[in-house]
DNA sequence: TATCTGTTATATATATTATATAACAGTTCT
DNA sequence: AGAACTGTTATATAATATATATAACAGATA
């Protein structure tokens, strides 16, 4: 998987990597059970310190997105079952409200917003839970 | 307007205030032309340093949400005309994609997402640009 | 043994966030 | 004129977050 990092961005590098990996899982660009590069390899590919990648993998493991084996390295969790907790729903609603408020004030209609959602969801592969 | 700050949150205080003010404009809780508390007053109300509030007002002014007059203080910009720039649309799409990817993987359906959007938009007052 | 994994420890540098004091230049009211 | 309020600016400090640098360790593999 090709990662594109913007070093001038306000978003921290480790956060950019996390976001792109989760997007990759959703779109299927990262197959289930697929191996991710080693911390040192990915760090070398991007041109950053391996601790930054290690932070990403540690958090992704913590949140259940990946599993780790000695030597075999890090792979997308084959038993991925991200839960729809009340805490998550609350933060989602809050983030969405912030996003929607500014979008609305800038002239993005409800229909525009629906269209953007539809476009994103159409790019996701059929792996989500029902 | 009553501001609720979570001091344990990962989101910086100044960012929480900004978000709530923009939400307030969208919902109409903050009327157009309405005065906001002075930097010192709001800081005292919340129990934080006035520089933190000053940072909020400076950025809100910079982005066109408020206007500032000596003595009369800060008010919601009566000529609010937030623009739908290409840069803004791009960041909106990117933020939405990140949000949608995780939501999808956690079992939030497209219809759920639409419902959340509709709920937010129904709380916004008719002031947006067309 | 040599080489690859993730992991941990320690140290350093930089930027961000938040606070603390102080002062200044306008405006408004007494 | 003077007091009391505005936003604004300057300076300093502290805590935290982000990123890097070097080194070492334990387990797996060839």
From TrEMBL, chains A, B:
It comes from the Bacteria. One of its GO terms (molecular function) is DNA binding. CDD domains: WHTH_GntR (cd07377). Keywords: DNA-binding, Transcription, Transcription regulation. Pfam families: GntR (PF00392). The keyword Transcription applies. Residues 11-79 form the HTH gntR-type domain. PANTHER family: GNTR-FAMILY TRANSCRIPTIONAL REGULATOR (PTHR38445:SF12), HTH-TYPE TRANSCRIPTIONAL REPRESSOR YTRA (PTHR38445). This is GntR family transcriptional regulator.
């Amino acid at each position: 998987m090709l990662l594109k990092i913007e070093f001038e961005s306000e978003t921290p590098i480790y956060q950019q990597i996390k976001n792109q990996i989760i997007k990759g899982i959703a779109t299927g660009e990262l197959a289930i059970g697929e191996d991710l590069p080693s911390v040192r390899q990915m760090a070398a590919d991007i041109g950053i310190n391996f601790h930054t990648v290690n932070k990403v993998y540690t958090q992704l493991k913590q949140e259940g997105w990946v599993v780790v084996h000695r030597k075999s390295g890090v792979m997308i969790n084959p038993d991925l079952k991200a839960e729809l907790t009340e805490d998550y729903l609350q933060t989602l609603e809050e983030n969405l409200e912030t996003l929607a408020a500014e979008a609305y004030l800038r002239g993005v209609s409800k229909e525009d917003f629906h269209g953007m959602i539809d476009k994103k969801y159409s790019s996701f592969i059929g792996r989500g839970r029902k």
